[in-house]
Amino acid sequence: MDNLELEKQLVDAARKDPLAFGELYDRYYDQIYNYIYKRTLNIGITEEITSDTFYKALDKIWMFRWRNIPFSAWLYKIA
Questions:
Q1: What was the pLDDT predicted at 3?
Q2: How confident is the model at residue 1 (pLDDT cuts 50, 70, 90)?
Q3: Are 71 and 28 in contact (CB under 8 A)?
Q4: How many whole angstroms separate alpha carbon 11 and alpha carbon 21?
Q5: Residues 50, 35: Cα–Cα separation, whole Å
Q6: What's the rounded Cα separation, in Å, for the pair 9 and 6?
Q7: Where does residue 6 fall: left (phi above 0), alpha (psi -120 to 50 degrees), or beta otherwise?
Q8: Maximum pairwise Cα distance, the chain
Q9: Which phi and psi (to 5°) does residue 6 adopt?
Q10: Gap between the Cα atoms of 39 and 79, Å rounded
């Protein structure tokens, strides 16, 4: 199974069970945190925006449309 296929399965699981979103959170937290930190250079603001990003992603995961691109692309767009 390739990485995108695994990601699609994780997203599908997270749509049915919010606890399954934790796998996506664990997978992408560091990437999103670093992306935001490089733009803000402020730990407090970075933590708040990162938290908001994952909250919005979980809240709106039903809107996510699979297009054979990494889920992280959607997270970057939210951030």
A1: 87
A2: low
A3: yes
A4: 7
A5: 9
A6: 5
A7: alpha
A8: 38
A9: -60, -45
A10: 11
pLDDT digits (tens, 9 = 90+) for 2-42: 888 999 999 999 999 989 999 999 999 999 999 999 999 99
**What's the rounded Cα separation, in Å, for the pair 8 and 40?**
31
* Cα 21 off chain centre by: 9
Q: How many CB atoms lie within 10 A of CB 47?
A: 14
Q: State the DSSP string of 24-71.
A: HHHHHHHHHHHHHHHHH--HHHHHHHHHHHHHHHHHTGGG----SS-H
Residue with tokens 């199974």: 1
- What pTM was computed for the model? 0.90
Please give the structure tokens belonging to residue 58.
């979980």
